[in-house]
What we know:
Blueprint: H1 2-21, H2 32-36, H3 40-53, E1 57-61, H4 67-79, E2 85-89, H5 100-107, E3 114-117, H6 121-131, E4 135-140, H7 146-159, E5 160-168, H8 174-186, E6 190-191, E7 214-217
GO molecular function: methyltransferase activity
Keywords: Methyltransferase, Transferase
InterPro entries: SAM-dependent_MTases_sf
Amino acid sequence: MANAEERVARVSEVRRRLAREGPPWARDHERDFETVSVPERHGDQLRDLLVCEGAGKVVEIGLAYAASALAIGEALLTVGAPSPRHVVIDPFQESEYANVGWKLLCSAGLDSIARLVPGPSSIALPRLLGEGFVADAAFVDGSHRFHEVFVDLYFLRKIVRPGGLVVIDDDWWPSVHTAVRYYERNTGWQALPDAFPGEPVGVRPQGRQRARCKAYRLPDPPFEPSFQDFRAF
């Protein structure tokens, strides 16, 4: 038990230091870490959500500076499932981020449960599905192009177990929100309005405040909608 507590404390310390001091390296973009990364409060809420869910296996799309990945890792260690797994997909971790996010995960000791897939999610997710991988939850913060988000969610609804969770970052972007809206209106995804409580963090592109992260529960049992019942989104 003490060893498990020490591992959780190690991850928590790396998370707090990252939030307090920023990453040891960042891209030469103004406020890049603050813009790209999930705010610490949302990270805490994501962690708590996954702990309440008892999640043991999580798929994450997008690593960047590892703010959300550390929160997910903290949750997985807190739950203490027999064989926790965290699959992180990011084709730009080396080329764009100099592996800073992965190095932070390693410094927290999470490389023992995490696996970095350095390829596009449109290729990595079908492979995971073909391997028979089943996740309890997914966190989506990859490409914000509509068609790529739509494809990510298409495969995640087959990878995440019935009744599992899909959490979306940057839901305030119209391209992301519109892709998610299809699955909400046509495949039975249920929004969890209390998953990320509190005041909205930041301002969406149109200038109005809106919650940044949004969580959805997949239907159990799953179903395929009839094309005749299609609902415009």
